[in-house]
């Protein structure tokens, strides 16, 4: 009689890895690929063992390992990528073997030294989202390590993973090209006083009031951003810390800021209490604090007082009166204001359902107060999101509607930076460069710290043929928002391409987790310009796979808005040189 196999359950950190482009490597030279894989497996085994883990299985080009802690698994993954990057540097680019790595923390079942279960399956699914040479982790791993390891993570949002019932939040570990973890503290600090506004805590007694605290945070952040004398971290990065217990010193060191603003909001009926503190991040001491007990209608006065107090307290004691702007016009009706606040929160979630709810709320805000310019501007912005993502049956009708709203907003208040930002973008699409530059400069003058305005400055300079200047502005936007969207990397790559920095453009494109057909087209153009036909051909194949019937004239040309004929010819010739069909 055979003995029963003993099955055990336990919690473990699981690392799953595979080779990106393995089939191509085998097709090019199977003997060399097998030899390299064998050497890399041996190196990985040593790294895993050094971080208190064990290799469970190595089928084909895959690898599965388990660790006793999430910290050991993530540090092991980083050490593994550093070691492989070092080895890859000694190989020609077409023979390099880059692994994707996924890490999950979950329940596993063990049998005969093998491991099974959802914990393992999720690690494999998370790995598939990682870029070549990169690392992705599940939300459970992120929660375990985010405050214990000096790492930067990019939130990739929730994903529906194959054969996994619940959606899983995934984070990318930000690393440099050599596999070294990105350290924001090493980024050069701004010479201006730099500041992070943390999301204000909602003390109003119900989650449905969270939008009010978020809206107040965003408005104070916007007001501070208008000061050219300040360097203000963007809203997108600020709200990464919503609902978290923040170690002020650590966060400030990671983001390279000197000051942190935090506060709370309690709203009851027609009364509101706002508490605000300005903290010197290095010493973790309060520089200034205040509490405001006011009628709800005084909320704009509170915003102005908070902004003025912060600016007057910072080094140099800059005067609020020195602002080179005209104050944005407040709404006449507080209900309209609250509808807009909630609409903004929904818009930032970037989903179809939330977009529809945001649209209803912003239209309600306009119905209540038709003269509220900022509501018209955000109506256009929400419609623009709908148009961009194709969440509409008639795109032409939506385009006409958001353009009308922009003109209404501009007529009501010409000092709204969002109106000018959107008008500049629309003008670029229409190749009306004079109008694009005018509205872009107005937006930049009104809000010089808005990362979306700053990155758009880099985009427009690129289209105007000033690639080098464009690179500087796009990198500034990345500094303002260290957790910037991946599309910033595409903007940077295009600017580098215009500046003929093809290798740099390729490195920027590699930061894009799931490149689409147009990303691969730029990849192909860069490799063609560098004389690397093998890589160019590989990316051309990816373009054709993602965009059946691809043609340069139909799919690329409409997206290229170069003012100079020489820049347009340069780009088109590179695409042709790569072998992309006309």
Shape: globular
The SS-based structural class is alpha/beta
CATH class of the domain at 8-182: Alpha Beta
User: What is the total tally of β strands?
Assistant: 14
Helical content (DSSP H or I, runs of 4+): 40-55%
Strand content: 15-25%
Given as residue ranges, the uncertain stretches (5+ residues, pLDDT < 50) are: 184-191, 315-327
What is the typical, i.e. mean, pLDDT?
83
Q: What would you note in describing this structure?
A:
The chain is of the alpha/beta class and 582 residues long. The chain has 23 helices and 14 strands. A hairpin with a 5-residue loop joins strand 2 and strand 3. Helix 20 crosses helix 23. About 4% of the residues have low confidence.
Would you summarize the structure shown here?
The chain is of the alpha/beta class and 582 residues long. The protein has helices at residues 22-28, 30-50, 70-88, 118-127, 139-145, 210-225, 235-238, 248-255, 299-313, 334-348, 352-368, 373-389, 395-412, 417-429, 433-446, 451-463, 467-480, 487-498, 502-509, 517-529, 533-546, 552-556, 565-578; strands spanning 8-19, 53-57, 63-67, 99-111, 114-116, 135-138, 153-159, 168-173, 194-197, 201-202, 231-232, 259-268, 271-280, 285-295.
């Amino acid at each position: 009689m055979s003995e029963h196999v003993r099955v055990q359950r336990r919690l473990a950190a699981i690392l799953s890895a595979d080779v990106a482009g393995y089939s191509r490597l085998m097709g090019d030279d199977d003997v060399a690929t097998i030899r390299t894989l064998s050497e890399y497996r041996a190196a990985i085994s040593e790294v895993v063992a050094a971080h208190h883990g064990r290799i469970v299985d190595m089928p084909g080009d895959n690898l599965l390992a388990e660790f006793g802690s999430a910290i050991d698994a993530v540090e092991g993954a980083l050490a593994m990528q550093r070691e492989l990057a070092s080895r890859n540097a000694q190989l020609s680019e077409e023979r390099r073997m880059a692994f994707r790595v996924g890490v999950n923390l979950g329940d596993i079942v063990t049998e005969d030294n093998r491991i099974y279960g959802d914990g393992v399956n999720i690690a494999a699914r998370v790995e598939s989202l990682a870029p070549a040479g990169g690392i992705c982790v599940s939300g459970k791993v992120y929660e375990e390590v985010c405050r214990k390891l000096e790492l930067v993570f990019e939130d990739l949002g929730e994903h529906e993973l194959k054969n996994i019932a619940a959606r899983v939040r995934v984070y990318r570990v930000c690393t440099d090209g050599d596999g070294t973890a990105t350290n924001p503290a090493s980024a050069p600090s701004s010479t201006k006083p730099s500041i992070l506004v943390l999301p204000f805590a909602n003390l109003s007694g119900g989650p449905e009031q969270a939008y009010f605290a978020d809206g107040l945070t965003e408005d104070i952040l916007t007001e501070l951003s208008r000061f050219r004398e300040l360097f203000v971290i963007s809203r997108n990065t600020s709200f990464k810390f919503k609902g978290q217990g923040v170690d002020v010193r650590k966060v400030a060191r990671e983001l390279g800021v000197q000051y942190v603003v935090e506060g709370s909001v309690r709203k009851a009926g027609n009364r509101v209490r706002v508490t605000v503190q300005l903290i010197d991040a290095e010493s973790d001491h309060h520089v200034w604090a205040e509490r405001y007990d006011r009628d709800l209608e005084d909320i704009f006065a509170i915003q102005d007082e908070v902004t003025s107090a912060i600016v007057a307290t910072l080094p140099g004691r800059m005067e609020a009166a020195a602002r080179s702007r005209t104050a944005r016009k407040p709404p006449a009706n507080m209900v309209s204001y609250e509808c807009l606040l909630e609409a903004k929160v929904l818009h930032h979630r970037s989903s179809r359902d939330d977009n529809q709810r945001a649209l209803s709320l912003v239209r309600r805000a306009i119905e209540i107060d038709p003269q509220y310019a900022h509501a018209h501007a955000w109506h256009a912005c929400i419609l623009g999101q709908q148009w961009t993502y194709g969440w509409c049956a008639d795109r032409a009708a939506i385009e006409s509607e958001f353009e009308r709203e922009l003109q209404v907003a501009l007529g009501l208040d010409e000092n709204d930076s969002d109106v000018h930002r959107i008008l500049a973008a629309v003008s670029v699409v229409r190749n009306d460069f004079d109008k694009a530059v005018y509205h872009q400069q107005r937006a930049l003058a009104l809000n010089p710290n808005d990362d979306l305005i700053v990155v758009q400055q880099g985009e427009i300079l690129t289209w105007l043929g000033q690639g080098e200047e464009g690179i500087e502005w796009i990198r500034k936007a990345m500094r303002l928002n260290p957790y910037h969207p991946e599309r910033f990397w595409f903007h940077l790559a295009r600017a580098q391409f215009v500046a003929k920095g093809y290798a740099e453009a390729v490195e920027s494109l590699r930061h894009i987790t799931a490149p689409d057909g147009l990303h691969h087209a730029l990849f192909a153009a860069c490799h063609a310009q560098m004389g690397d036909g093998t890589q160019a051909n590989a990316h051309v194949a990816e373009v054709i796979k993602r965009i059946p019937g691809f043609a340069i004239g139909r799919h690329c040309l409409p997206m290229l808005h170069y003012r100079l004929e020489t820049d347009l010819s340069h780009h088109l010739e590179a695409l042709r040189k790569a072998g992309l069909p006309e």
